[in-house]
Amino acid sequence: MAFRWLVNAILLGLPMGTTVGVLRGIDIHRASIGQSPLFDGSDSDLIGGGSGSGSSTAADDDITPGDNNITTSQYCQKSLEINPATKGTHYIFNPNQWGWTEGTEGSLCMNISTFNNHTYATNTTAPDFSVTWQYPAGDDTAPVHAYPNIKLSSDNLPVKLSKMKSLTMDIEWSYGIGTTPVAATNITSLTTNLVNANVAVDMFLDSSKSASQNSTKASFEFMVWFAMIGDSAEPIGLQQGSLQTQVLNNVTLSVFFLCIIFRVCPQLTCFLSDLYAGQNDLEQYVLTWLAPVTTEKFSGDIMPLFTAVLEANNATFPTSDDYLGSLQMGSEAFYSNVNVTFSVPAFSVDL
Ligand SMILES: *[C@@H]1O[C@H](CO)[C@@H](O)[C@H](O)[C@H]1NC(C)=O
Ligand SMILES: *[C@@H]1O[C@H](CO)[C@@H](O)[C@H](O)[C@H]1NC(C)=O
Ligand SMILES: *[C@@H]1O[C@H](CO)[C@@H](O)[C@H](O)[C@H]1NC(C)=O
Ligand SMILES: *[C@@H]1O[C@H](CO)[C@@H](O)[C@H](O)[C@H]1NC(C)=O
Ligand SMILES: *[C@@H]1O[C@H](CO)[C@@H](O)[C@H](O)[C@H]1NC(C)=O
Ligand SMILES: *[C@@H]1O[C@H](CO)[C@@H](O)[C@H](O)[C@H]1NC(C)=O
Ligand SMILES: *[C@@H]1O[C@H](CO)[C@@H](O)[C@H](O)[C@H]1NC(C)=O
Ligand SMILES: *[C@@H]1O[C@H](CO)[C@@H](O)[C@H](O)[C@H]1NC(C)=O
Ligand SMILES: *[C@@H]1O[C@H](CO)[C@@H](O)[C@H](O)[C@H]1NC(C)=O
């Protein structure tokens, strides 16, 4: 048993951490090679696929008065930064198929629905997006093919943890078999079709401002997993057991105890999560808050997850002098026998 655990940790746990680190490296490299101004949804080079990489940035002055239409654009590139225009908080999208080689089996396309008037429901609301993908099982040592994601682009980053008062998020997502978004996630039907993936917010921290924005250099990776689908996707430290449990969103004492005892939140708004931690082979400490029950909707402040870590008095954890440098949300795509669609109809971050 102990031997199996060790094997799992080596084959599954460690490479996962590495791969997340590596993909961050790719993102940062993309950012460093500059951006070409392109994004109006009518650019035929960008719609319906093609390959290669680069970036796509919006201009903020191309609004036609009275045009409240919604434009959906599809991106099937291996890697591409898409920066839609908005009057509110900016977000950068990337299909980010970093663990896939063009021309080999498998595919991933990301659809983004942008408002032509650049005015979303709130100042922090992101455009809706969905991702349809299918990959065969990869190498055990490099099982992740892609991390299609949305990234917060804010002048408030990096932020010192001692200065961070709250980190409020609204997230709504679904995962389903097929090429169209499903209304509700059915984990049984996903695992029956051998879907292996997660749904996660991924953040990086360091005592240096610049290193906190570099995913390979940062000392800490800090994640919140809303779902763990299939046997391949598991956070570092899972096999060692949870270090602590938190219930978020202003719950009463009785709700708190129900949550802790039955391992399910009795009300829709509360969020139960367990902390796992360990080191990846880039020697970064990876801290993961994992919801033991698939959580398709989250609305609230995740600051208590940072506070709990700061108060844990563990020498391998971040301190209040560290900076949060980047924040992304997406799904790590391991493999699937069939096409699956990950849909994110609501996302916003207020920092
Ligand atoms: C908005 O979409 C409708 C339906 O596709 C189209 O008829 C109309 O011309 C569009 N409006 C603008 C301003 O592009
Ligand atoms: C912008 O377009 C969206 C999508 O059609 C619409 O819901 C919203 O009301 C529009 N906002 C303004 C300020 O016109
Ligand atoms: C949204 O941002 C604009 C410009 O920064 C600001 O004037 C407005 O008050 C903000 N609205 C809300 C609801 O925060
Ligand atoms: C994404 O966009 C393409 C092209 O418009 C469309 O064929 C496909 O059905 C869309 N996928 C989803 C999941 O909405
Ligand atoms: C989920 O999928 C399984 C297997 O396909 C099916 O038996 C079950 O009825 C589904 N559950 C719901 C709530 O649709
Ligand atoms: C991030 O850190 C790595 C490792 O130290 C370095 O090779 C890379 O150039 C850095 N990236 C940026 C954009 O600074
Ligand atoms: C928490 O819930 C209590 C009782 O439901 C309410 O009075 C209080 O205002 C809430 N606090 C926050 C921060 O939402
Ligand atoms: C401190 O964190 C490490 C992971 O980085 C973990 O292995 C260890 O058990 C933690 N120590 C305590 C006392 O929780
Ligand atoms: C998945 O969907 C894409 C696009 O619709 C299609 O080209 C591909 O053949 C599908 N793959 C499988 C395994 O069904």
From TrEMBL:
InterPro entries: ConA-like_dom_sf, GH11/12, GH12. The keyword Transcription does not apply. SUPFAM superfamilies: Concanavalin A-like lectins/glucanases (SSF49899). One of its GO terms (molecular function) is cellulase activity. Residues 44-70 are annotated as: Disordered. It comes from the Eukaryota. It holds the Pfam family Glyco_hydro_12. One of its GO terms (biological process) is polysaccharide catabolic process. Keywords: Carbohydrate metabolism, Glycosidase, Hydrolase, Polysaccharide degradation, Signal. Residues 1-21 form the signal peptide. Belongs to the glycosyl hydrolase 12 (cellulase H) family. This is Concanavalin A-like lectin/glucanase domain-containing protein. The lineage of its organism: Eukaryota, Fungi, Dikarya, Ascomycota, Pezizomycotina.
